[in-house]
Inverse folding.
């Protein structure tokens, strides 16, 4: 046993625990061990120390004969055995004091053992933690780095919020320690102290230290800092926005193998650091087009190289890249590359890779459902897999890809798995998903009633009671259109009655409570509509629910369920016109019920039935569930009784002077007046997708002297010489301190070979994944011995079409039903070119007779103008709109702007060159918003009604045409427009009411689709280019206090980004 450094007792303990067959046997072993350990702490001779310090614990420093006080090795083994006792659920508090003693030992291994036991066993409120503070302070300033490391680990586990100030100074000082092991533990400990006490260790202080540690000379310290950045960015991403160039530079150096070889794992360079960096980029780039633009190139390279390696470590990097691509601002080329990687995962034989494929497909299918259509059979096979984990993830994928076309098939599959499931968590999750997709995508009301009723039968009380309320409201209200759909509403009610009548034969004790209560309400309200069973037979069936001898189990034994059934019986008796014997017996039995509410109902019903049966129709009216009950708050119907009593000598009622109710009401009114009930103003939201796009679409000269050529969204520069190739060329805030990485490359390895002179950039239509090697940055060469990481992928072999079997044909039929709303759905305009690999060819939203190329003639431009703030990245857009150089126009700036040349798309032949416009130039003319006004004539003022009437919106030299559509068609087109431009006017006097806003839309040339007075919302539509481009406008008016002005929120969506941008700028100017 000496070679194992274990005593025989300890060895036998571990062996006995491992060989125990039951929990009871394990408990007996640990109980004997506790007795043994307590004896070791007791005094071994006369005059031993008492155990008065804590229950079951001796004073520190027992008699000299105690082996635990003379042998540190035995004391360490004793603490490890105490740790076993604690891990197996028993109390080991008798040994805590020995752990505190051992933490003060001079031996490093004994000290760390004491810290470990204290970290695992001491609760945050334990008094022994205060005994460790002084020892941790001494260890933190120790010259022995092992003691400092042990103390830093203990700080993260033992320090509480009230003790942060005692060690924060020492921890911050260790950030400058000469040993990298101490520095990386210190940055983790500092972040932990910030989490415990944000006031003592502020966020600004931690962010400043993180920026410095990110440039540490040792890569391991940089890797530890990445953990802190990710955790803090998930809470508040704003302080790390300007770190995108630095993070991209670090990731690029890792991919180029600039780190030492000891960071490689199976020939993959620092995979954990790569995954951490990609996760940080996904957090920073979410909903931020400006930050996302700089990430496209490095994320694409990282995905490509990892995908080519094909081992587990690289597959993990591929998965993180897929998650990043689906999180940041979308880029069509990267989405295609992610779809190809998902396809490889789904076609793998490994269950783990298939799980990654389904998970990645679920993340991409929500916003880009077209990528799921290529994997129909793979999803069907995953549904039939025996792996429960893979099956659950596939069900989640089905839920995410539901649409109005495939909702019936997916709901049937979810209900099928719900029937066979025994896991309560899975059943609850599937129940929620079925309820959600049924309410959102129900093809008709009858299907919704059948589906929810089936869900009641399967899931029972796992269904939210609000779902039953919505179901009964749907049956009662119908479509809500009393003029046209009253007949359809009656058909729906009749179908619901027949559905629930067929359930009366089921055993009552097996019917869930929500099903019984819904059945009772439907049959009680509309039982007379049944054509499959008479009303008297329905009454007998309802009475059978209460007379079956198992009423205690009916609806789970809830008294409210029995009350609802009784009320339903009474309603049907009123509809039937007489009381059957079964109903009379039930009512008579429940007059003696122990439930006071049920007893009262039955006694009142008996009284009405016996003394005034003609009142049954008034007490239980037919189909009156939606009628309002008129309540006489003054009790005027008692005036006659009161008058008669007063005439007989009764004293009138007088309210007491010291009424407690008055005092209470007065105090409540005073308290209520102290509150301000005016709602806060809605904060202004940042315009989504309006980030600066430096270098995109500009025809000015770049830093290298070559002309910059407009690239598609996310397009990559041809070499490191272009601005897009280097992340350090991204614009950052000049006010904030920037992170300097000037010497980082020299520290982490030898410099790469010098990059060749950049070749002239030419537009290319090749896909991102198939870019030639010459187009990659210089540092991305394929090193020797890299195991295929970065090597070109072999050409795929031509597939041979196999002969389809009957099972395959059935899977294809199921796939057609599942992916009906995805593969058959029309692609959003403009359409993607049909090709084997996705192309990056720019396409205009409206197909012109001939494509207009971007002007690439190099010309020298002044340094002042910047690229226009336009959204070049549309969701699900199959192409991009070619942009030209234009100045950024501030519509709200009072100062004049310098006129910039604007290249209009496909201009008509100009008869004569116009005279140069006088300075200062009109910003609306620079933005192309004054088409139709004469250049020579002065612009009309917008302060008169005549000027507003003449302010027609024009696009491309022609006025827009009203698009006459219905509200339903507006909703369908709304989701098909990829370009979105929100507008916010905090205070508008020209459109302070909804009617003024709609009149403005009509004067601009839009068609007023609908004016919703109840919510102060309006929608309008127009088209340009003969209908090739469509623009939709939604506005909401929020009146401000005073009544003279209103807040106006407008959203413009269009199939053409330029049309949407121009119309939004026009609307913003007119609303102002």
């Amino acid at each position: 046993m000496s070679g194992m450094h274990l005593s025989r007792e300890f060895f036998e303990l571990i062996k006995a625990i491992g060989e125990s067959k039951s929990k009871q046997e394990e408990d007996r072993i640990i109980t004997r061990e506790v007795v043994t350990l307590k004896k070791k702490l007791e005094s071994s001779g006369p005059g031993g120390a008492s155990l008065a310090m804590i229950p079951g614990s001796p004073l520190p420093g027992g008699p000299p004969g105690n082996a635990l006080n003379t042998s540190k090795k035995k004391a360490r083994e004793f603490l490890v055995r105490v740790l076993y006792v604690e891990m197996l659920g028993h109390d080991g508090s008798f040994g805590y004091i020995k752990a505190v003693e051992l933490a003060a030992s001079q031996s490093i291994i004994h000290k760390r053992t004491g810290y470990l036991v204290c970290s695992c066993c001491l609760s945050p409120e334990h008094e022994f933690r205060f005994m460790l503070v002084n020892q941790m302070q001494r260890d933190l300033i120790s010259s022995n780095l092992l003691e400092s490391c042990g103390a830093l680990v203990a700080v993260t586990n033992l320090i509480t919020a009230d003790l942060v100030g005692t060690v924060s100074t020492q921890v911050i000082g260790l950030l400058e320690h000469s040993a990298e092991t101490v520095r990386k533990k210190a940055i983790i400990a500092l972040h932990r102290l910030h989490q415990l006490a944000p006031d003592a260790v502020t966020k600004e202080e931690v962010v400043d230290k993180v920026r410095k540690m990110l440039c540490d000379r040792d890569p391991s310290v940089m890797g530890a800092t990445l953990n802190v950045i990710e955790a803090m960015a998930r809470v508040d991403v704003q302080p790390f926005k300007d770190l995108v160039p630095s993070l991209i530079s670090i990731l690029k150096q890792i991919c180029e193998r600039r780190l030492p070889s000891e960071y490689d794992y199976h020939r993959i360079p620092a995979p954990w650091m790569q995954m951490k960096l990609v996760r940080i980029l996904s957090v920073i780039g979410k909903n931020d087009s400006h930050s996302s633009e700089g990430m496209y190139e490095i994320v694409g390279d990282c995905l490509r190289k990892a995908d080519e390696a094909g081992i587990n470590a690289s597959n993990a990097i591929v998965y993180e890249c897929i998650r990043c691509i689906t999180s940041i601002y979308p880029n069509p080329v990267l989405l295609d590359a992610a779809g190809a990687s998902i396809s490889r995962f789904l076609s793998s034989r490994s269950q783990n890779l298939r799980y990654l494929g389904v998970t990645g497909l679920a993340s991409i299918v929500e916003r880009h459902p077209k990528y799921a259509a290529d994997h129909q059979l793979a999803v069907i096979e995953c549904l039939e897999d025996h792996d429960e984990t893979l099956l659950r993830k596939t069900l989640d994928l089905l839920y995410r890809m539901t649409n109005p076309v495939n909702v019936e098939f997916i709901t049937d599959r979810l209900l099928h798995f719900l029937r066979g499931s025994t896991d309560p968590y899975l059943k609850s999750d599937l129940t929620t998903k079925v309820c959600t997709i049924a309410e959102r995508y129900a093809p008709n009301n009858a299907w919704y009633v059948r589906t929810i009723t089936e869900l009641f039968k399967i899931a029972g009380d796992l269904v939210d009671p609000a779902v039953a309320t919505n179901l009964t409201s749907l049956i009662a209200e119908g479509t809500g259109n009393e003029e046209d759909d009253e007949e359809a509403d009656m058909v729906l009610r009749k179908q619901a009655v027949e559905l629930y009548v067929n359930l009366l034969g089921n055993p009552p004790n097996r019917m869930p409570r929500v099903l019984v209560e819904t059945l009772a309400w439907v049959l009680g309200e509309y039982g007379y509509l049944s054509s499959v069973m008479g009303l008297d037979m329905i009454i007998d069936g309802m009475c059978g629910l209460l007379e079956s001898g198992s009423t205690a189990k009916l609806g789970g034994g809830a008294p409210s369920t029995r009350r609802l059934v009784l009320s339903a019986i009474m309603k049907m008796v009123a509809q039937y016109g007489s009381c059957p014997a079964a109903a009379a017996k039930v009512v008579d039995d429940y007059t003696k019920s122990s439930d006071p509410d049920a007893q009262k109902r039955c006694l009142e019903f008996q009284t009405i039935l016996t003394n005034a049966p003609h009142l049954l129709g008034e007490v239980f009216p037919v189909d009156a569930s939606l009628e309002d009950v008129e309540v006489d708050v003054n009790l005027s119907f008692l005036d006659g009784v009161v008058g008669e009593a007063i005439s007989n000598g009764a004293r009138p009622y007088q309210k007491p002077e010291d009424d407690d109710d008055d005092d209470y009401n007065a105090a409540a009114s005073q308290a209520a007046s102290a509150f301000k009930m005016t709602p806060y103003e809605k904060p202004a939201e940042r315009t989504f997708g309006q980030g600066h796009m430096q270098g995109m679409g500009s025809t000015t000269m770049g830093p290298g002297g070559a002309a910059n050529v407009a690239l598609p969204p996310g397009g990559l520069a041809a070499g490191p010489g272009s601005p897009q190739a280097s992340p350090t060329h991204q614009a950052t805030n000049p006010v904030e301190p920037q992170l300097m990485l000037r010497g980082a490359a020299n520290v982490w390895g030898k410099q790469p070979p010098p990059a060749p002179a950049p070749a002239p950039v030419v537009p290319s239509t090749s896909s991102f994944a198939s870019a030639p090697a010459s187009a990659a940055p210089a540092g991305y060469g394929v090193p020797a011995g890299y195991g295929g990481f970065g090597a070109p992928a072999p050409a795929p072999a031509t597939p041979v079409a196999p002969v389809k079997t009957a099972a395959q044909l059935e899977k294809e039929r199921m796939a057609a039903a599942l992916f009906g709303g995805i593969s058959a759905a029309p692609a959003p305009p403009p359409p993607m070119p049909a090709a084997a690999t996705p192309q990056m060819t720019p396409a205009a939203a409206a197909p012109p007779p001939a494509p207009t190329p971007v002007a690439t003639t190099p010309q020298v431009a002044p340094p002042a103008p910047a690229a226009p703030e336009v959204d070049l990245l549309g969701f699900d857009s199959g192409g991009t709109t070619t942009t030209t150089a234009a100045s950024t126009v501030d519509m709200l700036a009072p100062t004049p702007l310098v006129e910039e040349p604007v290249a209009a798309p496909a201009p008509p032949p100009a008869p004569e060159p116009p005279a140069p416009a006088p300075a200062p130039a009109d910003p609306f003319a620079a933005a192309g918003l004054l088409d139709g006004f004469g250049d020579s004539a002065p612009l009309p003022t917008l302060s008169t009604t005549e000027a507003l009437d003449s302010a027609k919106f024009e696009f491309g030299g022609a006025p827009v045409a009203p698009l006459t559509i219905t509200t339903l068609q507006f909703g369908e087109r709304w989701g098909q427009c990829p370009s979105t431009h929100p507008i916010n006017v905090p205070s508008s006097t020209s459109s302070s009411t909804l009617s003024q806003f709609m009149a403005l839309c009509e004067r601009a040339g839009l068609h007023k689709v609908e004016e919703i007075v109840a919510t102060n919302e309006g929608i309008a539509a127009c088209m340009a280019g003969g209908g090739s481009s469509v623009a939709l406008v939604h506005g909401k008016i929020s009146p401000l206090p005073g009544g003279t002005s209103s807040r106006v929120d407008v959203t413009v969506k269009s199939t053409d980004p330029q049309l949407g941008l121009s119309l939004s700028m026009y609307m913003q100017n007119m609303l102002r």
